[in-house]
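pinging the channel bc i need a second pair of eyes. not urgent but kinda urgent?? the chain im working w is below, pasted from the shared doc
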Amino acid sequence: MAIFHLSVKVISRSSGRSAVAAAAYRGAERLHDDRLDRDHDFTNKDGVVHSEVMLPEGAPEEFGDRENLWNAVEAAEKRKDAQLSREVEFAIPRELTREQGIELAREFAEAEFVEKGMIADLNVHWDIGADGQPKPHAHVMLTMREVGKDGFGAKVREWNKAGLVEQWRERWADHVNQRLAELDIDARIDHRSLEAQGIALEPQDKIGPAASRMGVRGLEAERIEEHRAVAQRNGERIIANPAVALNAITHSQATFTPRDLAMFVHRHSDGKEQFDLAMSAVRGSSDLIALGKDGRGEERFTSRQMIETEQRLGRASELLAERERHQVEDRGREGALARAAERGLVLSGEQRAAFEHVTDGRGLSVVVGYAGTGKSAMLGVAREAWESAGYTVRGAALSGIAAEGLEHGSGIASRTIASLEYQWGQGCEMLTSRDVLVIDEAGMVGTRQMERVLSHAADAGAKVVLVGDPQQLQAIEAGAAFRAIHERHGGVEISEVRRQHDSWQQDATRHLATGRTGLAIQAYGQRGMVHAAETREAARGELIERWDRDRQASPSDTRIILTHTNDEVRELNEAARGRLRDAGELGNDVSIKADRGERAFASGDRIMFLRNERGLGVKNGTLGTVEQVTPQRMAVRTDDGRNVAFDTKDYAHIDHGYAATIHKAQGMTVDRAHVLATRGMDSHGAYVAMSRHRDGLALHYGRDDFADQSKLVGTLSRERGKDMASDYKPEQQFAERRGITFRERIVEIARQLPERAKSIFAGFRPQANRLESLPTDQAGLTDQRRAVERYARAAVDIGQMREQELPVLPHQRDALEKAGKALDAIRPHGTADLASALQRQPSLAREAADGRSQGAIRAMQLEPTFSK
């Protein structure tokens, strides 16, 4: 993803530097240094893709030659500690092509430096890191004296102003964001991406332990010294203002432990003395908020800013939920349903309930839908209803491929949230009270971004519909905003799985959605779809063998190979491609300089697009098949039937498309999926990976990763859901500190809930000899069923944690309490009766959790007869 980095430093003789040597290194050239009477030869350096000297108006033409320029600079400086050049280094978004990155850097250098009278020696580097990912960046060496036709004059003091660096940082961010938005790339940078999050720290490159220990020389030693200098400056910033560390660490996690904090400070300080001072400053900061102990007994903390962000999110969601301004008349709803029926689309009971929920008048609607339950189809019908009432419907998602999926599945014009926010920042496409904003895959949106979007919608009077599944992949940034909003305001659930054709596979997907990964793996294992090999390498080979047989047997089916890491994806891509090559199904290989490095492509190859490109109509994650390829041009037929052709020099964000990471797959549907399980997976990744298919799944693993299937289940059942600072309340830790058992805790909660609610029915009990009838209206019946099922799922989840001797997580306790409150609102004393009934017949809990709740409801109604 795009990152922000812009740093400024001075090249000075006092540190033994030479401007000529620095210029030779940045440009990968051989330059003669007149002052030192020696050559600096860096022609063996790779990665320089653009190099030029940019002259301001009136500068001597001979300064356009790099060697002449920097020797003239050296000659103009007489002091032994002279400052020779100012260097600006900035990261170029890897989402851009080389040509786009070069153009962006040139435009920025021209506007910010050359037009101000500086000579800019620009070099663009497109290095490939050890992880195989490009690390594009630019070095701009700037002159520090005024320049005219006769050469250099006096130094320009205005160029030394402290505020100038901040101005360059802000303008580079604006420059990049404007270009990303123009290209419809789902990324955004913030010149305050450290500061705006309270992170007033300089970005630090990682220095490997070997490099830090060995006696390196030359430029590598210089790089390590620069790293240490940056770490020291960051340590000074933390000591001066410890809030910067707190807000940095909560960028990707809402809460943290003392160990998390120590590791962060260690990375951003230099030496034990500074580390101790920085840690002491943070521990004593008024911005450090203690939350108490988590389920593992570890102290957890957060930042004051994180608390305030969650409070703003809560206020925005409350304001939206309280409003009822977006009514759709019954006639509009019925018309939309009738038109859908004419097309052959008849909503199921759950889809119909969700449709009615999102088209009511409230300003906030929440839909939790399991994978493959037809959420987009329901939203398509809702779009027609909204539009018939005169509303404008807009869609958004975190990723480009998810936005594309929402648009294709529902007809709602959609874009990325980053693109939407950028437009708002420019005063364009602002929401109004006549807008309905649908956010898909909302579980992947972090707390800060969700707060910004909901606050904007609340201010504008718009309606927001959040659609997602908190059990699927978690937000990259801090928080679990979607889960928190759902727990606070409720919503509707769609649990009837439609993607898988076989009923037992639908049941398996429901197991995955409700955290019972072991039951899902067991179901597939009983049918011969879970395959163990001695090693991961052997498992990889068996997966490719099975994939190849499946491909030949059902050539018209769609399929994907999924795994956890990019390294595994590359291995699998190469192996799968080798099978097609051996079968004579690929044309001649053509070497392409792709964004991730050199790749061979041929006609017949599967390809994945890795960056949104509005002009081509592709998104990050779009799949297709290569039809023609030359070193300069490629023609692809995408899986949705479109023909796409492009010059590889203009668009090189491509890779082979036989395999993909699980993160790329959320929102994807194929006929068959082949999954290689590795140790980095968890329940969220397993859920996504094992629910992409319609017809078939093959799950492979190596015994060097998992000794047996029970170890596989243990790893793929790991709960790594993100938390909120508001998850931690002193009363939520009370039971664990007292050692109360699972059943005792459920009963305790159940008995307390009616008292907390202070219901007007307190003290009233139904007659023991009279069985309460089910609610007569369909809505009441549905609400009661859902409440019972939610309570049962929460109870079973907590039970599983206890059985595995794992700590119960705060959000699991919250889910149980919230489900209980919802049930009591429908049936006074219902929670207490249900908890007692589940104690008597534990099997009813699993049945209700799986959606078969009639037995639990009947037992709940009978429970008063046992308490007489």
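so The chain has 31 helices and 29 strands. and Residues 206-219, 730-779 have pLDDT under 50 and may be disordered. — does that match what u expected or am i reading it wrong
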